[in-house]
Amino acid sequence: MHVATDEPVLLAPTLLGGQSFRFRAIGDAFAGVVEGDLWTLATAPGGLAWTSARRRGRARLARYLGLDGSYPAALERLSQDPVLAPVVARHAGLRVLRQEPWETLVAFVTSANNHVPRIEGILARLAEAAGEPRDDGEVPYHAFPDADAVARLGERRLVSLGFGYRAPYVRATARAVARGDCDLEALREASCGEAREALLALPGVGPKVADCVALFGLGHGEAFPVDRWIARAVADRFFEAGEAPRDLKAFALARWGSDAGLAQQFLFHAARVEGAHGRRAPGASRLASSAAP
DNA sequence: CCACGGCCTGATTC
DNA sequence: AGAATCAGGCCGT
C-alpha cells in the first residue's frame, strides 16, 4: 500500500530515535508492532509504502505518524527561532509519534538509567512473555501486553525479563492502570499539567518519564522531557556558560508553547547525531572502531 | 525544597 | 582478560 504525502517524513530517526522501542530496520524499510499489528514502513516516491494486516491501516498510520497536515506549520513556527532553525532545517521530517499510552508508560519507566538497545530487548521479551501471539503474515509476533497481563506476570518474572530494579515499579504501575486508579485514556483529554501530575503518582514515574508519556503517548505537544541530553543541549545552545535557568521546562514552554515537545525532539536528535557543542556523540567512535579488524 | 547516593544489567571501555 | 564506567532517572534519606 502507499500513502501520499507532500510533508517531509524521516522514518529512521522518528522510529528508531528513542521514542518507540519496537521498530527495527530491515534494509531500507522498518518493521514494528503498533497497536497490536505488525507494520512495515518505507519511504517511497511521493509518500510512504506500508504493509499491515490491519484494516483501515492508512488512517491508523496517518494518526501514528501525525500525518494530519499540521506538521509543516509547526516546522515553520519552530524555524522562527533563530537558534533552532538550523537544527530544524537539517532534520526536517523528524516527527513526534502518537503511541499507545500504556506501552509508552512501560517503555519509559524501563528507560530510567538504561540503554536504548537494552530497553528494546526487555520490551521484546515482555511482549513475547505476556503479549497476545499473532500470526497473520510471514512472521509471527506478539502484541504488547495490556496492564492486567503485565501485572499478572509478577515481580520475579519481570526481573527475569530484564527489568531489574524497575520490576516492582512496573508491576505496581501495571496494577494501578489495570484497576483504573490511573485512567490513561482520560489523561488524553486532560490538560498536560493534569496528566503529568497523575502520571507522577505512579511508581517509577518521575518528571522526565511523565513528560515522555505525556508527549509520546498522550499527544500533549507542550510536554518537554528534560533528560541529560536536553539539559546539555539547551544550556549549550541557548545560554552562556553557567547561565542556564534551573527550570528548563518553563523556558521551553515560554519559548515554543505547544511546539515544545517537537522542539525537544529536534534538540535530542541533534545532540545525539551531531553531538552537543560539536563534540562527537557517543557511538560515533564505536562505529568507527568496530569497522576495523 | 534540595542535595546526594544507590541501583539491575550488560555493552563498551580501559 | 577482568574491572570500571555508563545509560534519555527515580526513590529514599
Detailed description of the structure:
- Residues 277-293 have low confidence and may be disordered.
- This protein has a domain at 101-206: Endonuclease III, domain 1 (Orthogonal Bundle), CATH 1.10.340.30.
- The longest helix is centred in the middle third of the chain and has 15 residues, at 116-130.
- It is globular, with a radius of gyration of 19 Å.
- It contains 16 helices and 7 strands.
- It is α+β, with helices and mostly antiparallel strands and 293 residues long.
- β6 and β7 form a beta hairpin.
- The structure holds a DNA duplex (14 and 13 nucleotides).
List strands and helices in order, with pairings.
Elements: E1 2-4, H1 11-16, E2 23-26, E3 29-34, E4 37-44, E5 47-52, H2 57-65, H3 71-79, H4 85-90, H5 101-111, H6 116-130, E6 133-134, E7 141-142, H7 147-153, H8 155-163, H9 167-178, H10 184-189, H11 192-200, H12 207-217, H13 228-238, H14 248-256, H15 260-274, H16 284-290
Antiparallel strand pairs: 1-5, 2-3, 3-4, 4-5, 6-7
The structure holds a DNA duplex (14 and 13 nucleotides).
